[in-house]
């Protein structure tokens, strides 16, 4: 592991001042980079720590913001903002591109070697960047199996890995099937891992506020999903090429 330097980054997106978390590995050379998107509640210490761990592995990592520096612990407030956002691919792409611009502008980032990893809403944004034709090396989405506009998925030119809990009521089997059918029809190199017995947001440690029904932490599968993401990055975005 390497020594990590972190800093807060402010940038504009979706009419808000976003507050992202940038983590840099030791050294001065350019490194492959990872964009990290949070669940619908917004950027928290969970995603910040994931960015730090990625930097320990040697990546430049930016955990991006969704709500202008706010964490929406009230499920109703979160849904009121996220449902319209998830229904608007252009808004999602705008948020993703703004964060991507910040990551690319970092001198330590190799702009030709970037991956996007996202959870829930953040995962949907990662997919929309791919559907918008962004040159990414890999996309990983957990709990974010959102289908896109017809024909645009063919613009994804990198492997897509997706993870979901078998008991996730927000991403039920019909949603999974629609997502994988879309990926297959577009000729995408895709993988779907279904984690048995896991609910929605199974990767996220318990929180100290009310959550929606069907949401719950599964520590074993959380570790497995993280290993799967790291393996994807090692395959598609190795530190040394």
Task: Walk me through what this model shows.
With 241 residues, the chain is of the alpha/beta class. Helix content is 34%, strand content 24%. It contains 6 helices and 8 strands, in the order βββαβααβαββαβα. α3 packs across α4. The relative contact order is 0.14.
Helices, strands, pairings?
Layout: E1 5-13, E2 16-24, E3 31-37, H1 45-56, E4 60-63, H2 75-86, H3 89-105, E5 109-119, H4 121-131, E6 138-142, E7 160-165, H5 173-185, E8 190-195, H6 219-236
Form type: globular
Number of helices, counting only DSSP H or I runs of 4 residues or more: 6
Mean pLDDT comes to 95
Order of neighbouring strands in the sheet with most strands: 1-2-4-3-5-6-7-8
**What structural class is derived from the secondary structure elements?**
alpha/beta
Helix content: 25-40%
The number of distinct β-strands equals 8
The radius of gyration over CA amounts to: 16 Å
Q: Sheet with the most strands?
A: 8 strands, mixed
Elements, N to C (H/E)? EEEHEHHEHEEHEH
Quaternary class: single chain
Q: First CA to last CA: what distance?
A: 19 Å
**Residue windows where pLDDT falls under 50 for at least 5 positions:** none
């Amino acid at each position: 592991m390497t020594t990590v330097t972190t800093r807060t980054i402010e940038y504009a997106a979706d009419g808000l001042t976003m507050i992202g978390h940038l983590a840099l590995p030791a050294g001065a050379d350019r490194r492959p980079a990872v964009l990290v998107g949070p669940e619908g509640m917004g950027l928290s210490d969970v995603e910040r720590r994931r960015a730090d761990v990625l930097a320990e592995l040697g990546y430049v990592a930016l955990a991006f913001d969704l709500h202008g520096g706010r964490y929406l612990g009230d499920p109703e407030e979160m849904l009121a903002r996220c449902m319209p956002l998830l229904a608007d691919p252009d808004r999602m792409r705008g948020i993703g591109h703004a964060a991507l611009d910040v990551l690319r502008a970092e001198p330590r980032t190799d702009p030709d070697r970037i991956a996007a990893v996202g959870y829930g809403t953040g995962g949907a944004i990662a997919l929309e960047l791919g559907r918008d034709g962004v040159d990414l090396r890999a996309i990983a989405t957990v709990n974010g199996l959102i289908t896109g506009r017809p024909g645009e998925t063919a613009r994804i030119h990198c492997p897509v890995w997706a993870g979901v809990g078998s008991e996730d009521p927000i991403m039920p089997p019909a949603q999974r099937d629609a997502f994988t059918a879309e990926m297959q029809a577009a000729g995408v190199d895709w993988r779907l891992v279904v984690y048995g017995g896991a609910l929605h947001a199974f990767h996220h440690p318990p929180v100290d506020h009310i959550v929606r029904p069907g949401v719950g932490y599964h520590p074993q599968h959380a570790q497995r999903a993280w290993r799967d993401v790291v393996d994807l990055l090692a395959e598609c975005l190795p530190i040394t090429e």
